Structure formats: C-alpha cells, structure tokens
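quick one, 215 residues, struct below
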Amino acid sequence: MAMAMNSVLVLMLGLAMAATSSAAVYKVGDTSGWTILGNVNYTDWAVKKTFHVGDTIEFKYPQGIHNVVEVKKADYDSCTNSSPIATHTSGDDKIAIKAAGHRFFICGVPGHCAAGQKVNIRVLKPQRSSSSDAPSPAPAASKRGAAAAPSPAVSSSPPESSSPTTDSSSSSTTTAPAPNASAAAGGGGAKAAFAAVALALSPPRRCYSRINFDI
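---
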C-alpha cells in the first residue's frame, strides 16, 4: 500500500512539473513593452498569440508613467476605468491566467487608452483529454458483435444440396422393377425350357394310317 501511495505521489508531482514547464509567459508588446510610443498595435500582437490557462501575461513599463487596469468589455470599449476589476502599478506586473475567456486591460492614465494602450487577451478553453472519450466506442462495438452473432446459426444449417439426394433416391426406388414381376418372368422362362426339353426327350409317336383294303 505504501509503495502504491508513493507511486501516485510521484506521478502527481511529475504531472505538476510538466504543467508548470509547459506554461508560457507573454510579455505584452514584446520588446516595445507597455507604452504609447512607437504606435504599438496591441490588438495585432494579441491575435498572433495563443493563450492558455496557466500562462502568464507580463506588463513592463516605467513605474509612475503607466499602469495596468483590468476592466469589463464595456469599459474596455469606452476606455473607462471608473469601475476596475484590478489595478497594477509595479512597472513589472505579472498576471496569471486562471480561467478561459476574455480579459481586458487598459492603461488608466488619461488619454493613453484612447491612444491605443489597451489589449484584449483571449484565453482558449482547456481541451478535453482523449482518455475520457475512449470508453464511448465500447457500446458500439458490442452492438456490432450482437448484430453479427446470428450469422454462425445460418452457416450451421444443413446445406440445400442434401434435398436433391433424397429426391433422387425416392425416384430410383419408384422406377425400379418390382421383385415379384422379375421372379414371375424368370419362372415362366424356366417352365418353357423344361417343356422344350421334355418334348425333345419323349419317344416319337407312330402314326398309323387307316388303310381300307377292299377285297
């Protein structure tokens, strides 16, 4: 039991390390950072990235000149920071992504959001693991097996070729000559033979003609 528990703990630790190593850190604006200089197109920057749960968004900027304000979509569209979700001012703000969906960030300094210092981060939903879908084909396979089950019963039925054998035997029986008829024919031939032999062996009969002598 202890060995099994240790194996499970090692496996969970390995999965946690793999998930941590696969997480990415995205620096907003890349080398330009979070700024209004250089006409950085943050919308184009975000579209070219693929964000997942577990990744980190990093905003780098000179502290005191800019800030990072997370807002709702309506405030993002209107560049309003009157009801912020969160405000960051460290100059090196690292924000972890913990859920899928859209997250909207603007600079709260007046005029900066209108100048284009705003970004919409779209986080993809976690993909469902293939192992959860694996058991689903099993019922389909069992149904196919059940449907195919009657086929051996058909093959085990006697072949149709046996029926002509029965017919031929019955026809040969009806067409064969009756034993009595052949015996009768044989008996008649024997009688005729015996009669011929007896006639041949019998002494010749003398024929006397009656002669009238007239005196």
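The first strand starts at residue 25 and ends at 27.
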